[in-house]
Specification:
With 155 residues, this protein is of the alpha/beta class. It has helices at 6-13, 32-39, 72-78, 89-96, 141-148, and strands spanning 18-22, 47-54, 58-65, 84-86, 114-117, 126-129, 135-139, 151-153.
Length: 155
């Protein structure tokens, strides 16, 4: 049985259905493509959590399919910023409580505006990080949207 993460405990407390799925971590390959390969899943249903900093709003979160790169101009526009940039990796842990390769949109130290890529709605379930390397949460995208109060955008 997989060890419960903080993100999993928060979903339990909210009564949201999900499952924890473990995979083999490769420290040299933390990208979503490796996770999808390990899970035997399509890269389009393995979502990565990216933390960005806007020039007006400060930090915000984009959750996008592993097959895509974030469009910074679009991300800035939908989040109410003129410009934005990826958060520097050394800022990730102090700001969110998570490390690169184990960043979940659930259970960050603070609640940040969250934007989920619209393609999530094409799937019955998607995978997101459970908050540690080596574990994913398999969840219905509608449940994730409700829990994180995400906005849907074509990021």
């Amino acid at each position: 049985m997989a060890q419960k993460t903080n993100a999993a405990r928060l979903l339990d407390a909210a009564g949201i259905n999900y499952s924890l799925v473990e995979y083999q971590v490769d420290e040299d390959h933390l990208e979503a493509s490796h996770v999808a390969e390990q899970l035997g899943e399509d890269l389009d249903c393995v979502f990565k959590t990216l933390v960005l900093r806007g020039d007006k709003t400060g930090p915000f979160v984009c959750v996008i399919p592993g097959s895509l790169e974030v469009d910074l101009k679009l991300a800035a526009r939908i989040s109410g910023n003129k410009n934005c940039e990826m958060l520097h990796v050394k800022e990730l842990l102090p700001l969110t409580g998570y490390i690169r390769g184990g960043c979940s949109p659930i259970g960050m130290k603070k609640v940040f505006p969250t934007f989920l890529h619209e393609s999530a709605l094409l799937h019955d379930f998607i995978y997101i990080s459970a908050g540690v390397r080596g574990m994913q949460i398999r969840i219905n995208p509608e449940d994730l949207i409700k829990f994180t109060e995400s906005s849907i955008y074509p990021i």
